[in-house]
Amino acid sequence: MLLPLCAAALSAGAQQGGDLQAQILYAYHSEDTNLLGYLIQTLSTEVQAGADSVLSYHLAHAEYRFGLLAAERQPHDAESAFTECIDQLKRVLEQDAHSVEALNLQSACYTNLAAFKKLEAVLLRSRAADRLSAARKIEPRNPRTAFLTAVDALARAKPDSADYSQAFAQLQLAAQLFEQSSATRIDVPGWGHAEAYLQLGRQLQLRGDVLGARNWIEKSLIVAPDFKAAQRQLASLVRR
């Protein structure tokens, strides 16, 4: 079940939800932490005022993106962001325990938080795996579920191993599922297209398939022209 964004939940209806998602993704792709910080502050105020849990999802998504950008230079801020992401999604899941999108996002935040909490890492990764497992049972072909599953598997697999081959195949499936889904719908969360295409491009580059890598990285930039990570990856191909 995808998380709906309805007029009863948002003051300006579904369009506001789509606009929020677009702003969060733009800020992340362009690596604008100031914009993300502003969005987090604004959404936090609305959530604290008693806004619908849909805004809690958007706040969690913004926190997740901030955490990813802050991970290297601001580890304490990143840890706080991933923790807040998890907490906001608890509210969403209390209202709908079968929300695939909330399960996906909370899994991602648990996984990333584990990198900062060494003593709790095993427990946090277990929770992340549980959330993804639940999401797969509800909606096996959700592209974000497939992508996060692939990313987790790639992180644990040794190069040239059977596990790596399976993880790579899972990433290819995720990219295929994203191609079959909309990246622009305003009524459901639709993030992940650009990241999945970039990740597949990176993996193909590592495998020596420069042409294939270029194809997927360019697809990533078609979806998100301001995606700085994809721009850097494409530049690395050009320099070769």
- Helicity, as a percent range: over 70%
CATH C-level category of the largest domain:
Mainly Alpha
Number of domains: 2
CATH-defined architecture of the largest domain = Alpha Horseshoe
The helix-strand sequence is HHHHHHHHHHH
Please report the number of helical segments: 11
Shape annotation: globular
Terminal CA distance? 44 Å
- Sequence stretches where pLDDT stays below 50 over 5 or more residues: 1-15
The major pleated sheet works out as: none
What fold name goes in the CATH topology slot of the largest domain?
Answer: Serine Threonine Protein Phosphatase 5, Tetratricopeptide repeat
CATH superfamily of the largest domain: Tetratricopeptide repeat domain
Give the structural class: mainly alpha
**What is the typical, i.e. mean, pLDDT?**
90
Q: Quote the beta fraction.
A: under 5%
| Number of strand elements | 0
**Which radius of gyration do the C-alpha atoms yield?**
17 Å
Characterise this structure:
By secondary structure, the protein is mainly α. It folds into 2 domains: 11-139, Serine Threonine Protein Phosphatase 5, Tetratricopeptide repeat, CATH 1.25.40; 141-240, Tetratricopeptide repeat domain (Serine Threonine Protein Phosphatase 5, Tetratricopeptide repeat, Alpha Horseshoe), CATH 1.25.40. Helix content is 73%, strand content 0%. The protein has 11 helices and no strands. The model is unreliable at 1-15 (pLDDT under 50).
